[in-house]
Structures are given as structure tokens and as C-alpha cells.
Hints:
Elements: E1 18-25, E2 30-35, E3 41-46, H1 60-77, E4 81-87, H2 93-102, E5 106-112
Parallel strand pairs: 1-4, 4-5
Antiparallel strand pairs: 1-2, 2-3
Helix pairs in contact: 1-2
Amino acid sequence: MAKRTATKNKKKKISIDKGVIRIHSNFNNTIVTLTDVRGNVVTWSSGGNVGYKGTKKGTPYASQLAADKVAKEAVKLGINKVDVTVKGPGSGRESAIRTIQAAGLTIDQIKDVTPIPHNGCRPKKKRF
């Protein structure tokens, strides 16, 4: 009987010159995602991913740690220019942006993509 040799899948080297960091911040958590320009996720982190549980996930410090983790990974991959899109009403928005800038990444554009209702739901019919 022939011997089987195990072959490991080699990781592909990703070379990205520009990335997009998406910050989704709500009152309970902040999710920071690094994507390429097309939208394919490269790496991500959140308040829960860095070790916090419960209400501490929604703090600015937890979002700062999550953004720092993503920014260090981006620098390791060779990305130096990023666009930042921010979504949601949470408290970790500004601290995450400051951390990304402090990590050595150049921010080209900051865009707020928070959805805003423009007319609301249809009202109930009138009672007689």
C-alpha cells in the first residue's frame, strides 16, 4: 500500500496598496474591519474579540484596542493608505479613527455612512 504524504496549503501572500477600514459602532459593540478596495475582508476585530464582555464592549477604549489590532495587521501587510467609513451612533467612532491615524496609516478620506430614515413608516389608518 502506498504511503500518503500530507501537503499543507500555503497561504497566499496578499499585496494590497490601499485599503478601506470600516467602523461599525453601536451602543453595545464596535466592529472594525479592514477590506480591500473591492470589499473583500482582509482582517477584522471587535470589542469582544479583544477580550471584553458585556457593557465594556461598547466603550471607546475597547474600540481603540480593536482598531489598533486591525491597524497593526494592515501595517504588517504593507498597507499605508486607507479610506475610513464610519457607521452607527456608538461612542467608539472617534477613538477608533484616532488610533488608526496614530498607528502610522495615512487616512485619505473619512466617510459617514450611517443610514438615516427620510420619511418614516406609513402611519396607521384613522380611527372613526
